[in-house]
Amino acid sequence: MSLDERKSKILEAIILDYISTAEPVGSRTISKKYDLSISPATIRNEMSDLEEMGYIEQPYTSAGRMPSDQGYRYYVDYIMKKNKLDEAIERLVISSFKGKIDRFDDAIRISMELIAKITRYPSLILAPGSESSSLSMIRMLKVDEKRALLVVITENNQVENIFVDLPYEFKESDLDLLTSVINSKLSGTRISQWNKTIISELYGDLLKQKDVLATVLDSIEDRLNQKKEHRVYLTGIIQMLNEPEFRDVDKVKNILSFFDDKRILEDVLTKNSQIENFQVLIGNENEAKEIKECSLIKRSYSFQGDFQGVMGVLGPKRMDYSNAISLLELISEVLERKK
Amino acid sequence: MSLDERKSKILEAIILDYISTAEPVGSRTISKKYDLSISPATIRNEMSDLEEMGYIEQPYTSAGRMPSDQGYRYYVDYIMKKNKLDEAIERLVISSFKGKIDRFDDAIRISMELIAKITRYPSLILAPGSESSSLSMIRMLKVDEKRALLVVITENNQVENIFVDLPYEFKESDLDLLTSVINSKLSGTRISQWNKTIISELYGDLLKQKDVLATVLDSIEDRLNQKKEHRVYLTGIIQMLNEPEFRDVDKVKNILSFFDDKRILEDVLTKNSQIENFQVLIGNENEAKEIKECSLIKRSYSFQGDFQGVMGVLGPKRMDYSNAISLLELISEVLERKK
DNA sequence: TGTTAGCACTCTGTCTGATTGAGTGCTAAC
DNA sequence: GTTAGCACTCAATCAGACAGAGTGCTAACA
Predict the structure, then answer these.
(1) The CATH number of B5-79 is which of 1.20.1270.10, 3.90.1150.10, 2.60.40.10, 1.10.10.10?
(2) What is the mean pLDDT of each run of 10 residues along chain A (339 residues)?
(3) Would you say A109 and A234 are in contact if contact means Cβ atoms under 8 Å apart?
(4) CATH top-level class of A87-128+231-336
(5) Phi/psi of residue A71, each to 5°?
(6) Domain B131-229 adopts which CATH fold?
(7) Cβ of B248 under 8 Å from any chain A Cβ?
(8) Which residues of A touch B238 (CB under 8 A)?
(9) Residues of chain B (76-105) having a beta carbon less than 7 angstroms from strand D
């Protein structure tokens, strides 16, 4: 369903005005502030049509109009032009990453902070779980008689440390032998690929140490599964409270409880992100009930070509979509770039 | 300045009532609900005295009275009896820790969650910084030609992983040699004790590898200093918003911004905790302006006799002090217990 | 001399009605 | 098809009235 030129212009004016004032906008305002050279009366007629078509709505009879979800959707899909980011902001982004793009954790933290700072809305980033990355190598370091530190390095240079209680005393050289066998079998594979065949081969090779091997493999799986839950980075929540739509403590509670449950966050970010690189979810398009008054912009990213996550901004429906989209685009591009 | 028996009883009644209703309390209420067998008129006279002495205050003429900071202080110091924790809660605490008291991180997380859940207020825990704990050992693992993973283990079994770029190619055995020399000199010492003497001795022993040594030592110091900032664990913020004193978005913003700045949190927790094992800070006694409407209860703890931190609960001034205090007491006792 | 009943007084919170202003929808003229 | 004009609607604001909770004071009582 498409709109003619004039209706489209009027819808745009309504949305732009509403974005900047958060007040329902009337026909007179549009006629005065936006140069469409038509009278308020005509605009009223058009607005009446737009309302009937579902693009705008009135909070009550005789108030101004505000965009509906469908209105925002039309705006994002057809009207909004992707204007380029402010030069200064682009420079800020680039320079913030300078020299800190190696470590994944640093890069993510910087991205998150940039998004929150520039958009002034909360930003959230889903980091890929360790279980989805391949094992580079493991090592075991003897800590005391019957205890070792298991060091697990994945191919994207994330490191996990796990203390392991050994069933009997090991020499350091025994441990090295053990780990070198494990490495030769499992290095380069994903945890999720550790099927019965590989594992039973391993047990064949390490018959004598099978209880240690079991402990080691279990520890790794346990830890990496545990890690799954804590993959969401998040910042900038307070800023959200400056928006007039959050003048109400119950709404604040609502949004905070959304941010508080990392599993919901993860679901929300993950959803469809394999299929769609870029997603803009407006109001009720969001499945999580806590954010049906908000819009979420998501962008999949990969880190130096290696593995995937999702980054997003959550704002009120009347957020500056164009700006936020360009920013996510830029940041994901920087992350992608191999150094 | 002490109060006579009857004034003390009346103050107690006012505080207890205010704690449960959050409404200014009048003389009639006290006479009816609390069995003091004196008439409202008499109570009014006493209240008038208490107000003059600064223990209670009136929000406006002809409203009921509410406790002042000084009133709460008197209550906490002289009136409140430390009643024992509910048995069920005590069991819950003990059982929550069962089998999970080894790893410091787990123990802290459980403590934090217990405090938030039981008191229904936000809980915050300061974990001791790595820089204050002694080095147990370091190891270096070769990752690729010119890159090694430096594994730093402290005596309380915290582990840090640092990737180090080597100036030239090393064999694994060279790295082992290097680390064993470092270990023999630095093992058992605190980072903060690494003075010039020790370090220059080390350089003497490792003349040939001095640039690698420098990289290693710098990396360790850098990382552990960085870590300092992220030592505060925190949960249960939303619960605070259920309290009637936070019906106002500006107050919410205030308190959220307090929780947002980890440095302020750290300062607040650290302050005087060396001198006083236990602290109750009521309203204006708090230095941080964001929480001058709240009370903070802090308790120093040590983990299995080893090193020290601080745990706390932040609530409205009309919180259940007795209960919160007993809970912190119990938890710090559990943490202290060597397994 | 301490306690109490009674009463006038004070202040908040809520309700009501009047008023204002922004904005619409409709009609008739251009 | 566009526009000016006008009646109409509704939220927001304000003032005044009123009820209710609670106090402080006074005078009587034990």
Answers:
(1) 1.10.10.10
(2) 88 96 94 90 95 94 94 96 91 92 85 97 87 80 88 82 85 87 86 76 81 83 68 90 87 92 91 92 96 96 83 96 96 86
(3) no
(4) alpha beta
(5) -65, -45
(6) Enolase-like; domain 1 (3.30.390)
(7) yes
(8) 253, 256-257, 260
(9) none
